[in-house]
Amino acid sequence: MTTVVKGVKLRLYPNQAQIDQLWQLFGNDRFVWNQMLAMANKRYENNPKSHFVGEYDMNYLLKPLKQEYPFLKASDSTSLFVVNHNLAI
């Protein structure tokens, strides 16, 4: 039995406001990645025997992070959860 794989190519043409929003979202994802990684590294420096903070715990830290950095509220929380997921694996 053979499997046929089909693909679809799409090209998007966002307007300038959408481009700006995409750059904001990508920047926020990068910022959260760097903040969580710095926190994990600092935690390891303080106590090398401590366990790595898991995905659930990093998701729990997003709310205080959004309060400290209000520009993160422009991002969809799902994209920030994906950042934490990718960092945790």
Written overview of the protein:
The protein has 89 residues and is mainly alpha-helical. It has a domain at 29-88. It contains 4 helices and no strands. Helix 1 packs parallel to helix 4.
List keywords for this structure.
63% helix; mainly alpha; flat; 0% strand; 89 residues
Q: Helicity, in percent?
A: 55-70%
Annotation, overall tally of beta strands: 0
Low-confidence stretches: none
CA gyration radius, whole angstroms: 18 Å
Summarize the biggest pleated sheet: none
Distance between the termini: 35 Å
The whole-number mean of residue pLDDT values reads 94
The computed structural class is mainly alpha
* Count of separate DSSP helical elements: 4
What characteristic shape results from the CA principal axes? Answer: flat
Beta-strand residue fraction: under 5%
Order of helices and strands: HHHH
Brief account:
The protein is 63% helix and 0% strand. It is an all-alpha fold. The chain has a domain of 60 residues.
Task: Provide the fold topology.
Blueprint: H1 16-46, H2 55-60, H3 62-68, H4 77-88
Helix pairs in contact: 1-4
